[in-house]
Every structure is written in structure tokens, then in C-alpha cells.
Amino acid sequence: MGWMKDETGLGRTAANYVPLTPLSFLTRAAQIWPDHLAVVYGAHRKTYAEYIERVTRLASALAGLGVSPGDVVATILPNIPAQAEAHFGVPACGAVLNTINTRLDPDTVAYILDHGEAKVVLVDPQFLPLLAEALERMDGSAPVIIEVPDDHAGVHAGGHYRTYEDLLDSGDPGFAWIMPEDEWESIALNYTSGTTGRPKGVVYHHRGAYLNAMGQVLSWRIVLHPVYLTIVPLFHCNGWCHTWMMPAVGGTVVCCRDITAKNIFDAIADEGATHFGGAPIVLNTLVNAPAAQRREFSHIVEVFTAGAPPAPATLAKIEPMGFNVTQVYGLTETYGPATESTWQAKWEHTKGDARAAVKARQGVAMPFMEHVTVWDEAGAEVACDGATKGEIVFRGNGVMKGYLKNPKATEEAFAGGYFHSGDIAVLHPDSYLQIADRAKDIIISGGENISSVEVESCLMGHDAVLLCAVVAKPDEKWGEVPCAFVELKDGHDATEADLIAYARQHLAGFKTPKKVVFQELPKTSTGKIQKFELRKIAREV
């Protein structure tokens, strides 16, 4: 050890140790690039100087509403400037940001508002009916509602609630941000589509958000002043931390409310978008866009895709169009992307299916993850043979703090000193991992996770249903959709349309089965339903 034994006077001080937080990216950007475009959405074009003022006014106004450090502020918003501003303004008053999935059903939204104890909710007028129904179902005290009209999209204020711009006007542009005293303090709360029943509240800390945002700069090979198009919903793992990342590189965030081929091509051609993330369905949309919706552009657009591997045919068609696609993988519990299918020069000569096969792997750990691997049931790493299956596990600073108010689930998720993803994969000889089959009960539809257990529970509530099992059915547009196999009770009748309509009353639209098959369910000797048999049938239906 030598002199290391005596470290007198070498402790942490205010000079050499500052809690890491992505808030620091914005204060730095506003200082260096005050006149550079920070956020763009139609006529809304704000420089970094204007962006930080709006963020500061938001933080001040929230504090004025009684939001204290550690309180939760929720949003039910599409990808509009207010949602980007909330990523900085909410933590700048010491609060925790809870971006709620706009596609959820009222019952789940009510549960989230109760469980997270949101003090304030920022809501787009389009989702006011959803919120109103959720408020009726809440057990706890209702949050203060701030309406965020989107006049650019023709979604105007209803006049019943205070508006977002009015809230900002009440804020003090000189408000001193409440920076974290400890980087372990919570910055965000995200609810995962749990495989059983209620969603779990995933808590992020400032340190993880900072390191994830910084690490992805390396993974995405970003240089200064990228133009980032918001395709990934900002309610999904905080938009994969990309909104926090942009000020670090003096980037411009281009908001996209409605994800259409025309809007994406327009943003690339008119705003010069250089980067976006999205599920493979987005790539399909671009590949299949009619000529009238396409635009010419001369630069390469870098794309992070996740949720499911893009089909080889899609990759083969989209790359010549000017898109370089990198497969990434992660979960809500890992702040979004945590592995990357890092491209290597030795693969440059590969074409067609061989190229797609390399690109379709989920890859290796991103720089902020200490270790990502695949374990067998005994907790040992599987052989790097591309065939032996196991569970993907993560260790590193890009793993959540844990599940809110659920120490048991947190302890289980972190067993053995790694986060257990529940996803099944193989390791290739070059150490790149590839998902073999998703954790059995999860259906990934258009990048959204659907719990088959939740859909089954819903259908079992119908008077005519004796037994049901829900599996993924391959779908050209969405990747996968829920397919229900149902046994009816004796003397009861129900049609496919009946059950789909019933499910639609109780579940979000994307979770509703798109196909119902009436048949006896295959079972093991112990009566367990053999879902692998049903998956085979679903592929043929």
C-alpha cells in the first residue's frame, strides 16, 4: 500500500466532489451556447437562454404551488416542449418527475397517481378525459391540475384549469435551483408494465441519469450540436435519457407529437434531424411510406432501435435510404438502453441477411454499465456458444435504485448482486448477447410491453370464459399483438367480437387482444397451460 495507508487531508470537499446530476448539463449549455437552438416544435423555437429561463420559471412556479423536495410531479403529455422542460424544471425544484404513459387505462393511471402520491399533474387537453376518469377512481388526495394546451396541433385549452404558460408566468426567472445534496437522491419515477398485476414504480437517481446520458454520447458516437428528433415517448424511461443528454452536447431537441412517416421525413429535411430512437415499427413506417410522404436529405441519420430486433428485410431496405441503425436493449429498470450492438470494421463487407443477423443482436454493455451477461439458473455465466440460454443480468450505475414501496420485489430483482431482467438470451462467441425469447409472458407490441397475465385476468372476468391464455401473435405492423385462446363455460356463448369489446372496456387499446381463438387449451399432466403450443398456433392463425 505504501503512502496509501495515510490519506490524511485527502477527503471529499466542496472543491473536489460534487453530486452528479444531468441538471448541470443545462446550466453549462446555457452559459456556452445561449443563442443556439435548444428546443423546436413548429413555431416554438427556443434558444438555450430561453430554454433555461422557462425551466427555471417552471421550477419556481412548482415550488410556489407547494411542491417540496422529494415530492412527485406527474405529467400526462405527448412529446411536446413542456415535457422536455419538465425533465429539468421538476428536479430543479428538488421534486421527482413521474411521466405517465398516455396510452394507459384510467384504472392504472389512478393507481399510479395514488402510489406515487403526485402533488401536481401537467396534462395535455387530449388526455383530460383519461385523467378525469382516473381522478374519480383515486383513493388518495387529487393532484393540482395544470393544463398544457398544444395550439400548434390544434389541441386547445378547455378553460377549466390553469394553463402551463400562465404557471410559467408566475415563476421567478431568478429562482435558485435546488441541486441534489447527494447524487443518490431520486430524479424520476417510472412505472413498468409488470408481468403480474399492478405496474411497479421504478426509481431513478441523479447519478444514474447523468451517467446514462453521458455514456450514450459515446455509444451513439455523438459530436457537438446533434439535432435529436423525439420519437421515443418521453414517458418511456424518460425518453431513454436523451432529453437530459442533449444539453451536454449542445444539441437541439425537435419535438414530434404524432409519429408519422411525413412528420419524421419533414423533421429530417427541414430541421436537419440527425438522431432518433424508436421501435422497429417506426422503421417499417419509413420503409413503407408512399413517395408523396418522403423527402430528400443528404446526411446519414443515426437510429437507435429497441423493443424487438428489426426484420432483416426492413434493415436491408432502410439503410440505403440514409439511415444507420444500431440495435440497443434495456428496460425501465436500466434507464432505457444499457446494451448496444456495437458495429465493428470487420463486418463492413457483410451484406443482406448476414449483415442484418449481426445488427439484430442486443450486443454488449454500454460504457456506464459495469457488466451485462447471461446467467443460468445457478447464477453462473452461460457458455459463449450462441445456443445455451439463460437470463440477462445487469450490474452498474445504470441500474435503478429499486421499486417504490416494494422492498421484496427490489430484493428479488437484485439477487446475487445483479439486476435480473427476466429476459432470456444467448451469448455469442464474441460476447455479444442476443435475446432468444422474451420473458415468456411479455408481449412487445409497437415497442410497448404488454403483460399477458394482465390481459388474461381481464378476460377471465367475462361471465362466459372458463379458461384463457394470451400469447404473442406475430404482426407485420406492430411486431407482436395479443392473441387470446379461450375455453367457454358450458351453456355459455360469446363471440370473438364480444370478448374484444369486453377487453376494450377494461384495458388500454394496445393491450386488447386482436384475435380470439376458441378451443380447448393444451395442458400438462398437472393442468398447467402449455403456452409454447399456443404460440405455434398463433403463428399460423
From TrEMBL:
Cofactors demanded by this protein: Mg(2+)
A GO BP entry: fatty acid metabolic process
Record's keyword annotation contains Magnesium: yes
Summary of subunit composition and partner proteins: Homodimer.
TM ranges: none
UniProt xrefs under SUPFAM superfamilies: Acetyl-CoA synthetase-like
Enzyme class: ligase
Family: Belongs to the ATP-dependent AMP-binding enzyme family.
Reaction equations catalysed: 3-(methylsulfanyl)propanoate + ATP + CoA = 3-(methylsulfanyl)propanoyl-CoA + AMP + diphosphate
Keyword Repeat attached: no
Domain (AMP-binding enzyme C-terminal): residue spans on this chain: 454-528
Keywords: Fatty acid metabolism, Ligase, Lipid metabolism, Magnesium, Metal-binding
Its EC number(s): 6.2.1.44
InterPro entries, alphabetized: AMP-bd_C, AMP-bd_C_sf, AMP-binding_CS, AMP-dep_synth/lig_dom, ANL_N_sf
PROSITE patterns: AMP_BINDING
Protein's name according to its UniProt entry: 3-methylmercaptopropionyl-CoA ligase
Entry's Gene Ontology molecular function annotations: ligase activity; metal ion binding
Domain AMP-dependent synthetase/ligase as annotated: residue spans: 27-404
